Structures are given as C-alpha cells and as structure tokens.
Amino acid sequence: MELKLVSTTLTVFLLIISVTVTTADYVRPQPRETLQFPWKSKPHSYPQQVHISLAGEKHMRVSWITDDNSSPSVVEYGTFPGRYSSMAEGESTSYNYLFYTSGKIHHTVIGPLEHDTVYFYKCGQQGPEFQLKTPPAQFPVTFAVAGDLGQTGWTKSTLEHIDLCKYDVHLLPGDLSYADYMQHRWDTFGELVQPLASARPWMVTQGNHEKEYIPLLQGGFASYNARWKMPSEESGSTSNLYYSFEVAGVHIIMLGSYADYDKHSDQYNWLKADLLKVDRKKTPWLLVLLHVPWYNSNEAHQNEGDGMMQAMEPLLYAASVDLVFSGHVHAYERSNRVNNRRPDSCGPVHITIGDGGNKEGLARKYKNPKPDWSVFREASFGHGELKIVNATHAFWSWHRNDDDEPVRSDQVWITSLVNSGCLAEKSHEFRKILMAP
Ligand SMILES: *[C@@H]1O[C@H](CO)[C@@H](O)[C@H](O)[C@H]1NC(C)=O
C-alpha cells in the first residue's frame, strides 16, 4: 500500500518532468495511439527483444534479454537451419532504475562471418531460431534510415514499410522507444522491433529521449547503454554515445548530440582520430549521424544544434563528409551540399529524418522564406532509403507513410565527394585542424 502511494506520487512527478520536457509551442497534429502489448506468459529463460548490430570487421553482436538470471549468454549459429556449426559466449549486464529491475541483458559477439550470407541462430539455447543476413563486402549496399521511432500506430506502419525494402543495415539517428522514464516501455519497444532488428543490424545513436536523467536519483542513458550496446570499443571510443563502423565501402560515424563536443572533449578528440583512419580508397563514402540537426528550417528545435555545429562543422567539412543524417525534428528535410550556412559544393548534404512515428506527432510549421540551402521539406511520417550503387553514385529516396502506402515523395541521385577535387583542395585545411592541440 505504502509502496503504491510512493509509486503514484513518483509517476505524477515523472509525468510533470516529461510534460515540461516535451511541451513545445507548435501544434502537433494527429499522432497515432501508443501501441498496447498484452502480457504473454513465456518461460523465464526465453530470449526476448533480440537485436543485432555490427561489431567490427566480419562480426556481429547479438543482444537479447531473459527474465532468468542464470540463462547463458551463448549464441549458436550456422548457415543451415537447425544445424549450428559455431557457438560463441558473450557477456551480460542488468540495471536498476528507481523501482524497476531489468532482466538479464546478454551481448554476444559472433564471427568471423561471411559477407552477404544468411545465418541461422539461437540465443541462450532456448526459444525460436532467428535468421540474419550479413551486409555485402562491396557496393551496392542499402541503408534504411528512420529516427524518432517510438511505438505508436505510425511506428508500426513505418516498420512495415521498412520491412518491404531490401536493406542491409538500419541507421537510427536517435530517439528509440520514447519510454520516457517508464522502463517497461523499453521492453515493449524491444519486442516491437525484434522482427526487423533480429534480421538486419540496427545501428543507433542516442537522442534526448534516451537520456532519462533524474537529478540525484538516476544517471543518464542507463537503459540505452545497457540495452543498445554499439561497437564503441571496436572503434576506439570510450563511450557508447559515439562510435564508427564500416560496411561495404562506407565509413559511418555516429556522433552523440548529448555527449560533450567542444574542441577539448573526448568526443572531439576521438572524432579527429577516427577521421584520420578513414581511407577513401577503401571507403569512398563518408556518412555521419547525430540527433539534433544543424540545418533545420522547421520552427521546432530551431538553433538547438548550433553549439555542436560550431564546434564540429569545420572538421566534418575539412574531412569531406558526404552526408549528415539527423532526427529530433518530427518531419523530413533535405539540403543541398552546404557549409557554414551557405550552399557549398564541397560540403555535406544534410537530411533530417525524425519522422519515424513517435507519440508526439509532427512538426508542421516551417520558417519562411525557405533558406537557400533547403531543397525539400515536408512534415509527414516516413522513412528513407539510401542505396549506394558504387564509389560515386547513391540513390536517396524518402517514403512517406501516406494512407499506409509507402509513397516515394522525394528522390535524388547524390554523387560522392571522392572524385570531386574537394578532398585535394581541403587536405591542407584538414591536416591543420587534425594537428591543432
Ligand atoms: C556508378 O553508377 C552510376 C549510376 O548507376 C553510373 O552512371 C556510373 O557509370 C557508375 N560508375 C561506375 C564507375 O561504374
């Protein structure tokens, strides 16, 4: 009884926090209802919330949760169903959040794996067999991109549309579950995305909804870091909030909008070191993801990315980054190649794709006139597909969830900077920034 009262008071307190955090002065129309997940009885050792992520050259991390604390962190796998030629043992963790205690969270790295190959696997020697496909070694390679997912009727429709696209890797620029302090909503999100995230690697970076920080009571990113372990160690980073990975001729850098980013920060120094390692002969394409957009002509979240942009844009420009994806704004916007707020043929294309389907609805108001760097903007739910055809050409398309049909609403061929002369032109500047103390 007493506990119930405490927990009710706490819920009210948390509601006040989340309302003040999420309220903004623009009108967000017709979000779809939050999905309900009926409780299903499962054996305690049954693997739940299975998802996979790339973990260094030819390796994949399999993550799942069991209610049973003694369940082994073992993955059996092979290229034939039901016949597992290999086995790997990993690690596990768990966390407490106020009155919530997570299940046993397993992370097991498997490999070396062949490229472009279907593997069958089983987690913790229990439950059903899962299937995954590894990305190809070479072009073409296709990425599905959608941020600010949440778990509403719109999320469901976005996931259904992504499932129809033949993609190799999912890229998520922050805001996953919208659990917003209610930890069991992380569990339902894990179940919701399992059909997709257990089959193709999901590479994520953090958004503001992952923070779940409560002064004096709870540190930030506890749930996110425990559940969505990304290859930071594999990429020389000391934080799960920023890391990089390579797939089929593409080097992808996941930055943390909510980690320190000034010139003396760990993140900035790691970024310099990571960029130094990029070999454009091996990975002609260079992509960056982060949560808070730097180029945004929506009224929502105006100028929020300015600090990070000021610190890091010169470095990304000097490194000739091809594309920057962000989320946060619940709408879609694509820029020209841009730098320092002006169209620049040696700058990256910026794409805001925070329209995955979260409960807060769309950000419909745009600033007018449209800035000259902005090419296409629309407030609809949807997802993007980036098909990198070869070292120089990629086809980008944005698919609106219109009437539950995936409508391709924006599409463009993007050419990489690799043969543009930009790299040579900027090499001196790049060295200078890299060598700066
Ligand atoms: C790369 O793909 C584009 C688009 O399909 C094509 O026009 C171009 O010739 C290709 N380049 C090479 C070197 O194959």
Automatic annotation (TrEMBL):
<dbReference type="GO" id="GO:0046872">
    <property type="term" value="F:metal ion binding"/>
</dbReference>
<dbReference type="InterPro" id="IPR008963">
    <property type="entry name" value="Purple_acid_Pase-like_N"/>
</dbReference>
<keyword id="KW-0408">Iron</keyword>
<dbReference type="InterPro" id="IPR039331">
    <property type="entry name" value="PAPs-like"/>
</dbReference>
<feature type="signal peptide">
    <location>
        <begin position="1"/>
        <end position="24"/>
    </location>
</feature>
<keyword id="KW-0378">Hydrolase</keyword>
<dbReference type="InterPro" id="IPR041792">
    <property type="entry name" value="MPP_PAP"/>
</dbReference>
<dbReference type="Pfam" id="PF00149">
    <property type="entry name" value="Metallophos"/>
</dbReference>
<comment type="similarity">
    <text>Belongs to the metallophosphoesterase superfamily. Purple acid phosphatase family.</text>
</comment>
<protein>
    <recommendedName>
        <fullName>Purple acid phosphatase</fullName>
        <ecNumber>3.1.3.2</ecNumber>
    </recommendedName>
</protein>
<dbReference type="InterPro" id="IPR025733">
    <property type="entry name" value="PAPs_C"/>
</dbReference>
<feature type="domain" description="Calcineurin-like phosphoesterase">
    <location>
        <begin position="142"/>
        <end position="332"/>
    </location>
</feature>
<dbReference type="InterPro" id="IPR029052">
    <property type="entry name" value="Metallo-depent_PP-like"/>
</dbReference>
<keyword id="KW-0862">Zinc</keyword>
<feature type="domain" description="Purple acid phosphatase C-terminal">
    <location>
        <begin position="347"/>
        <end position="404"/>
    </location>
</feature>
<dbReference type="InterPro" id="IPR015914">
    <property type="entry name" value="PAPs_N"/>
</dbReference>
<feature type="domain" description="Purple acid phosphatase N-terminal">
    <location>
        <begin position="47"/>
        <end position="134"/>
    </location>
</feature>
<dbReference type="InterPro" id="IPR004843">
    <property type="entry name" value="Calcineurin-like_PHP"/>
</dbReference>
<dbReference type="Pfam" id="PF14008">
    <property type="entry name" value="Metallophos_C"/>
</dbReference>
<dbReference type="GO" id="GO:0003993">
    <property type="term" value="F:acid phosphatase activity"/>
</dbReference>
<dbReference type="Pfam" id="PF16656">
    <property type="entry name" value="Pur_ac_phosph_N"/>
</dbReference>
<keyword id="KW-0325">Glycoprotein</keyword>
<keyword id="KW-0732">Signal</keyword>
